[in-house]
Structure formats: structure tokens, C-alpha cells
Amino acid sequence: MDVKVKERLCQVCGESKQIGRNFCAFTCESCKAFFRRTALKTIQLHCASNGKCEINVQTRRLCPKCRLKKCFDIGMRIDFIRSETDNKIRRQLMIEKKMKKLLQDMSAYSGDSSDNDSNANSGQEFPESDGNSSAIDDMDDWIEHTCDDSQGSSRQVMDIKYCLSGKSDILTEIRQKAQKLAVIPMCKTLTDYNGINQLESRRIDELLVATNVF
Amino acid sequence: MDVKVKERLCQVCGESKQIGRNFCAFTCESCKAFFRRTALKTIQLHCASNGKCEINVQTRRLCPKCRLKKCFDIGMRIDFIRSETDNKIRRQLMIEKKMKKLLQDMSAYSGDSSDNDSNANSGQEFPESDGNSSAIDDMDDWIEHTCDDSQGSSRQVMDIKYCLSGKSDILTEIRQKAQKLAVIPMCKTLTDYNGINQLESRRIDELLVATNVF
DNA sequence: AACAGGTCACGAAGGTCA
DNA sequence: TGACCTTCGTGACCTGTT
Q: What are the boundaries of the region Disordered (chains A, B) (predicted)?
């Protein structure tokens, strides 16, 4: 029972909400975020009380130095924070993944069945651009004309565009696909249909597209 | 006896449950899944302890690099993992099998018990509507016989039908395309609508993929 | 029965923004 | 700073084939 209670309280500040195992210790969300942000920083922290501050939910934000010290004391491990290069790679992979999906969607709606999976080496880097800005412009057009942004739904597309600045190879491909796009239905025909949620109406869209009727 | 005990423990992590010969070594289910997922990946794994982590049930998830190393060390073989193309083919075959069964169900519902179709090419056909006695009628029949409306669940299908009324040419076209694509169970999947769950929409995806449209 | 792959809820990382 | 979110790896459980 003692252990159970322990596991339900943040070992750093005593918080009782959102407790989980973070960086090898049971902590709350805020101490987790604090440790992630602070532990790797090299700048010297300063404590006004000679490093003897008590850390609880109320005081935890008053002295970062003592809070961080307690984090280490209760066993939070710095080596469980992913390295910046690791994170960079992950972000890159995520972007490529989204890109691929975007291209698939475009292919589907333009009826372009020539989209081949033969691209075996997915971990490859995109070639650098020579400053082709018109591809970006084209993408802007495409975003503007094909996305219903009434609910911020094209935000991810914008992110991808931003991240891809200077990667004209794939942008050229996008432009080609985009040109084939006769019409629009990217953002769901039956969205507000009573009872059918977004996922389902998306499936219906796909079925209709599969028939090549619309 | 020693050997028997050995065979009842995962050679990677020492787990004692669900042991079997997996990829040429005696392992638990989780190490099997881990090896299947990880062994073929090309991305570089990183170990914080210079590749000297001890792997047991508690620690196995902490360092993928050392876990994978141990997998190889105890003799798990990467060539026992099926290739992606192999898996693709298998999935394709499974889908065709399922579609065949669905087509049979379909035939049963449409009262098309006579197997002597004049079209000899595929063996499985959409029930032919005589003349243009109205595709809508056919659809009505089909809806009536395949939808469980005990909870108003076929309402969406009916609405779709209504939207298509007066567009019998489109309906005919859909049927023709459907014949060509050998996709019947479009609405069959929606029949069980009670909220389309994840599994079901997954089926729809599979069917679409099976048509080679995308 | 044995052994491949598939599924999905869940835990624990990082990211975002008021 | 911290509440909330997304993403991805994990492992128990499942399906299908031999």
C-alpha cells in the first residue's frame, strides 16, 4: 500500500495528478517537462537558500536549482532524454512520412495510379534545392485551393511546406500531381452528415473515388 | 531436465511465459515481436552504456540496441523474417480469399442461385438487372436483404441511395465499374453500421487496395 | 501444434502554446 | 511553466498457414 501511494504521488513535488514513469522515476507532467527542459542545460543555476529549498507543488517553481537537484536525487536519469541529433532524425522521418501520405492522397484524388512503392530506400535525404521558389508558390496555390481551412485542417500541410523549403525535387513531384488534380474533394463530401463521423465519411469518399464516378 | 528448463525460458530476457521457437531460437512473445520489428530496420540504435546492458524481463525495454544484439548472439536469424514483398503477396491472397467468400454471401442474398452465367470469365458476377427495370429497385432489394435495420443502422445507406435517385446512369456505371473491379461488398461493410469500428474500416481499406485502384 | 505475421491498447518519449 | 497533444515502441492476444 505504501508503494501504491508512492506511485500515485510525484516523487519530486508531491503532485497527485498525471503521475507516470518519466525518465525512470514517478513524477507529474510538469516535473517531467521541467526535467526534460532543464537537465541538459549547461548554464549554472543559482539558489538563494544554499540549495536547501523544500520542493512541493507550491514551491516547485521558485527554485529551479533545488528542483533539478531533487529530480536527480530521486533517480531521474539524464540518459533517458533523447539527444538532439536523435530528435532531429525523428522529426525528419516524420516529415517524410507525412509527405508520402500527402502524395498518396493527391495521387488517389487525381486518379494517378502510377504511384509506385518501388522507392525502397525511404531513409534517404532529399537533395538540396538551388533556390526554386516557384515550387513553393505552386504549393501555396494548391493548399489554398484544395484545403478547407475552416478548422485549421491545412495547418499540417503548411508545416510540411515550411519544412520542405529548399527541397525542390519532391516539390516538383507535388506540382506535377497537383496539376493533375481536376477537382477538390480532399476535405470530405459528407462531413456534416448526421451520424457519420469524419473517418467514416472519408471512407465513403474513398469508395466513391474507387468507382471513378466523381 | 536442464535442457527442458532452458527451453522454457526466453533465451533473450529470461521470461518464462509463452516460450516458443521463434526465428530459430527459444524466446518469449515480446522478444519475438521485438526482433520481427527491429531486426530489419536500418536506423542506427544508440546505447548509453557502451553496449553492455544486461537484458532481463525488467530491463529488456530500456535498451533496444543491446536487446537486439543479444537476439543475434543467441542465434535468432534475420533470414527467417519474411520479406515485405512476401508479406504483401500473402496479404493479397488473403484478401482475395475473403472477397470470394463475400461474393458468395452476396450471391446468396441476391437470390442468384443459378451458377450458369453466360459470362464465363470470372465465375463471380454481380446479379444482372434485366433491361433498365431501374437500378434503384435493385438497390432497394439489395438494401432490404443485406441490411440489419434493427437499430436504424441502415439509414445512412438509404440516404445515400436517396441522394443517388434520378442518377440511375451513375448507378449503372457504378455497377459496371464494380463488376470490372470485382468489388461488391462496398455497402456490405457499411451494413453493420453502428459506428464503423477500426477493424471494419480497415477492411474497407483492404478491399480498396485489392482493386488496385491506388 | 508450431510458428510466421497482424492488431491494438497503452506507456513514455517529444512538441505546442496560452 | 504546465496542461494537453502527437508519435512511436511494446507486448498480450489474435489469425492464418504448414
A: 109-134
Euclidean distance between CA atoms A16 and A13, whole angstroms: 9
- CA neighbours within 13 Å on the CB side: how many for B204? 25
B198 and B136 both lie in a single domain:
yes
> Which residue from B181, B205, B140 is spatially nearest to A200, judged by alpha carbons?
B205
- What is the per-residue pLDDT across A147-172, written as a single tens digit (0 to 9) for each? 444 444 444 455 555 555 545 455 56
B46 neighbourhood in chain A, CB within 8 Å: 83, 86
Burial status of residue A190 (CB atoms within 10 A of its CB: 0-12, 13-18, 19 or more):
buried
Residues from chain A that touch B196, judged by Cβ atoms under 8 A, are 199-200, 203
| Domain coverage including residue B133 | 85-112+128-210
* Domain assignment of residue A152, yes or no: yes
**Closest CA in chain B for residue A105:** B214
Same domain assignment for residues B101 and B179: yes
Q: Is A150 on the interface with B (CB under 8 A)?
A: no
CA of B195 to C1' of D4 (A): 27
| Cell numbers placing B146 | 443485406
A204 to chain B, any CB pair closer than 8 A? The answer is yes
Give me chain B's average pLDDT, please.
67
- Does the C-beta of B29 come within 7 A of strand D? yes
Q: What is the pLDDT of residue B6?
A: 52
What pTM, to 2 d.p., does this model score?
Answer: 0.61
d(CA A203, CA B96): 20
Size of interface A-B (CB pairs under 8 A): 52
In a domain, A107, yes or no: yes
* pLDDT 10s digits, B16-55: 999 999 999 999 999 999 999 999 998 888 898 888 999 9
Q: CA-CA distance, B144 to B157, in Å (whole number)?
A: 11
CATH number for the domain spanning B64: value is: 3.30.50.10
User: Are residues B204 and A209, on separate chains, in Cβ contact within 8 Å?
Assistant: no
Chain B nearest CA to A211, separation (Å): 6
In chain B, the number of structural domains is 2
Q: Which of B41, B204, B212 to probe by mutation at the A interface, max A CB count within 10 Å?
A: B204
Residues A69 and A141 in one domain: no
Can you list the residues of chain B whose pLDDT is less than 50? Answer: 1-3, 5, 113-133, 135-136, 139, 143-144, 146-171, 174, 181-198, 200, 211-214
Distance, Å, A21 CA → C16 C1': 22
